[in-house]
From TrEMBL:
Name the record gives this protein: Hexose kinase
Molecular functions per Gene Ontology: kinase activity
CDD domains, sorted: FruK_PfkB_like (cd01164)
Keyword hit for Heme: no
Kinase in keyword set: yes
Length: 346
C-alpha cells in the first residue's frame, strides 16, 4: 500500500468545467449522423483534474474555484470527497465536450467560462492564500476566463511567496507569456509546458524544438534564465523531459498503452510529479512518476484520473540527459501527452 502523501496541495481552477465525453463509433464525419456509444460527465478544469488525481492517491488537497454552492460541479466534487473553497458566481460552470474516436483521437469543444469581476478575483485570491499558508504545493492550472487580466497568474505567484508553498503553473498563450514576462518574482517553482507552449514562450518555432534536442534544451534554458526553477516539458508520445536550474536533466519514455482518451492526461502527469515530490522522491523519480500517471490517464476513458493501483512506474524508462531521438511522435503509438491533452484543452 502506498503511504499517504505528506503535505497539503492547493489547486486553483479559474475556468472550471463539466467535462462531457461522447464516444464515436468511428472517425468523425462532418455533416453525418453518429450513433454515440457510452458517454460520461465528470467535474473538470485542469486544476480540478490535478486535485482529483492527488485525492485518489490519498493526498490532502483543496480545490479553489469559482462556482455557486448549488452548481453541479460543486455537488460532483463533494461526491468525490474533495475539499472545496468555492467563490459564488452568478452563471453556471461551462460544459466542455470531448468527442473520442476508437483509435484514441479526441476532438475538444470548449465553451467560454464565466467572466470573473474584480470582487470575485479578490475572493479567489484570498481563499487561495488562506489554504496555501503551510501547504507544500500550489498548482495554478488552465485558461483564464474572458476579461481576466492576462497577468493574474503572475500576480498570484508573487502574492503566494510568503506562504512558503512551492508553486506550479500549467497554462498557455497570453497568460503564459505574461507570467514569464513579469520577472523573477513571478517565476514559478515548476512550469509544465508542452512543445507548442515552449515555442510560444521563446519564439523558437515548434518544428525546430521537435526536430533538434539541442534547440529544445536551449529554449528550456532560457526559462531558467527567467527564474523558473524546474521545467517539466511534455513531448507527446515520446514522454517528457525534466530540467532544473542547477543543471539537472532527465528524460522519460512512456510505456506502450492503448490510448482511450488523452483528456486530462497532462493534468495527471502534473499530479504524479507533485505526489512523487510529496513522497520525497528525487528528480528522476518525480519525472518517471509524472509520465506513468500521464500514461495511465490516457489509457482510461473520458477524463477519468488514475488511482495509484493503475499507475505502473516500473514501465517508464528514465535516463539522464536529453532524449536520444529528436523525432517526436513519429512512430510511438502511446500518446500520454498528445495534442488533445495540451492544446485547446485549457
Amino acid at each position: 500500500m502506498n503511504p499517504r502523501p505528506a503535505g497539503r496541495v492547493v489547486t486553483l481552477t479559474a475556468n472550471p468545467s463539466l467535462d462531457r465525453t461522447l464516444s464515436l463509433p468511428g472517425p468523425l464525419e462532418r455533416g453525418a449522423v453518429a450513433r454515440l456509444g457510452p458517454s460520461s460527465t465528470e467535474p473538470g478544469g485542469k486544476g480540478v483534474n490535478v486535485a482529483r488525481a492527488v485525492a485518489a492517491a490519498g493526498g490532502d488537497v483543496v480545490c479553489v474555484l469559482p462556482a455557486a454552492d448549488d452548481d453541479p460541479i460543486v455537488r460532483a466534487l463533494h461526491g468525490l470527497g474533495l475539499r472545496l473553497a468555492s467563490v459564488p458566481v452568478p452563471a453556471p460552470v461551462r460544459t466542455n465536450y470531448t468527442l473520442t474516436e476508437p483509435d484514441g483521437t479526441t476532438t475538444k469543444l470548449n465553451e467560454p467560462g464565466t467572466a470573473l469581476d474584480e470582487a470575485t478575483r479578490a475572493a479567489l485570491t484570498a481563499a487561495l492564500h488562506e489554504h496555501a499558508d503551510g501547504a507544500r504545493w500550489v498548482v495554478l492550472s488552465g485558461s483564464l476566463p474572458a476579461g481576466t487580466p492576462l497577468d493574474w497568474y503572475a500576480s498570484l505567484v508573487a502574492a503566494l511567496r510568503d506562504t512558503g508553498a512551492r508553486i506550479a503553473v500549467d497554462t498557455s498563450e497570453e497568460p503564459l507569456k505574461a507570467l514569464l514576462g513579469a520577472g523573477p518574482a513571478a517565476a514559478p517553482d515548476l512550469l509544465k509546458p508542452n512543445t507548442e507552449e515552449l515555442a510560444q514562450l521563446t519564439g523558437v518555432p515548434e518544428d525546430a524544438i521537435l526536430a533538434d534536442p539541442d534547440v529544445a534544451l536551449t529554449a528550456v534554458a532560457s526559462l531558467h534564465d527567467r527564474g523558473v526553477a524546474a521545467v517539466l516539458l511534455t513531448l507527446g508520445a515520446d514522454g517528457a523531459m525534466l530540467s532544473t536550474a542547477d543543471g539537472g536533466l532527465w528524460s522519460a519514455q512512456p510505456p506502450r498503452i492503448t490510448v482511450r482518451s488523452t483528456v486530462g492526461a497532462g493534468d495527471s502527469s502534473l499530479a504524479g510529479y507533485v505526489l512523487a515530490d510529496l513522497a520525497g522522491a528525487p528528480p528522476a523519480e518525480r519525472l518517471g512518476t509524472a509520465v506513468a500517471y500521464g500514461s495511465a490517464s490516457a489509457s482510461l476513458p473520458g477524463s477519468a484520473v488514475p488511482t495509484p493501483a493503475q499507475v505502473d512506474g516500473s514501465a517508464v524508462r528514465v535516463t539522464t540527459g536529453a532524449p536520444a531521438d529528436a523525432r517526436r511522435g513519429v512512430s510511438t503509438p502511446p500518446a500520454p501527452h498528445a495534442p488533445a491533452a495540451g492544446r485547446g484543452a485549457r
